Amino acid sequence: MNSMKAVGLTHYLPIDNPQSLLDVVVEKPKATGRDILVKVEAISVNPVDTKVRSPKEKVEEVPKILGWDVAGVVEETGPDCSLFQPGDEVFYAGSIARQGGNSEYHLVDERIVGRKPASLSFVEAAALPLTSITAWEALFTRMSISQDPDHNKGKALLIIGAAGGVGSIATQLAKQAGLTVIGTASRPETVSWVKSMGADYTINHHDPLLPQLQAIGFSSVPYIFCLNALEKHWEGISEAISPQGVVCAIDDPTSPLDLKLLKQKSVTFVWEFMFTRALFETDDMIEQHQLLNHIADAVDQQKLKTTLAEVIGPISAENLRQAHKLLESNSAIGKIVLEGFV
Fold it and tell me: Alpha carbon of 250 to those of 26, 35, 36, 48, 308: distances in Å?
């Protein structure tokens, strides 16, 4: 059998259970259609990994492989591929509907894959795809923010949860677009990280938002990007958003939201889910290929920097359990990356 190493699961268990993620050997896939087969060099871990892995009754006959951030080298291309060839260095997030990238080789549709930034190592590049796609789509597609700095003069964006992976990229992209960025952070180390990413101001998300915004000279903000605890911040968001402003969110609220709070101000509320294009194979799916290439160019031109915070060793069940645990503690800063198989 043409086999490969991977980290997978058969049962959905708490991360403290050593059976929650397992070192497994599975069949090496083959590229068909528009798929490319990538030799995985480095992977990053995201909250979506912990959500998919979280305890539930389901049992997998074939080990389920997580992981939606990959940097690697094209090994093989399907017959319908036109964007890449073997030997190309790539980075991407993949599709939630398919096996993830925590394996030696990984199949992915070329339309959601970008050229790896030439100036970055595989480890540095693996930190970027999922968060870059999420931040880019949220700001420029969902919220319809202009990329022209002249257009955004005097406009502010509030990012709730700015120290995480998405917040770190969103801060940089928003600054590039000429926005004033206010990031929330609650610890000295996260405040420092958010400022290092380019935020103009920081406020504390554990305290009411509007009084803190007013204290730094903002009576309201036209754009709010909420990255966690949406229901906890919902009332504060409705108070702080400008009339006719736009609110975007990515996390799942644990209780229903009262949309009426936004009515008097005619506020637009939008979701961003970066897997939508791949999941539904939308007509504009190739936008993610172009978006990632744009990110790669911006990195190579030193307009954007990687949000890599920690490398915790090779790709193994033990190291991935450690990474999941860190993410579930809600205290991770930037991105956690693993490199290669032993």
Answer: 33, 28, 28, 11, 21
Total domains in the fold of the chain: 2
Instruction: Find the domain containing 164 and state its range.
Output: 132-271
Q: What is the CATH number of the domain that holds 141?
A: 3.40.50.720
Mark whether 260 and 142 lie in a shared domain. yes
Pair of tokens at residue 44: 């990053």
Structure tokens at 166: 């998405």
pTM of the model: 0.95
Taking only the tens of pLDDT, the chain with its 342 residues reads 699 999 999 999 999 999 999 999 999 999 999 999 999 999 999 999 999 999 999 999 999 999 999 999 999 999 999 999 999 999 999 999 999 999 999 999 999 999 999 999 999 999 999 999 999 999 999 999 999 999 999 999 999 999 988 999 999 999 999 999 999 999 999 999 999 999 999 999 999 999 999 999 999 999 999 999 999 999 999 999 999 999 999 998 989 999 999 999 999 999 999 999 999 999 999 999 999 999 999 999 999 998 888 899 999 999 999 999 999 987 778 899 999 998
Are 137 and 123 in the same domain?
no
The helix/strand/coil state of 240 is helix
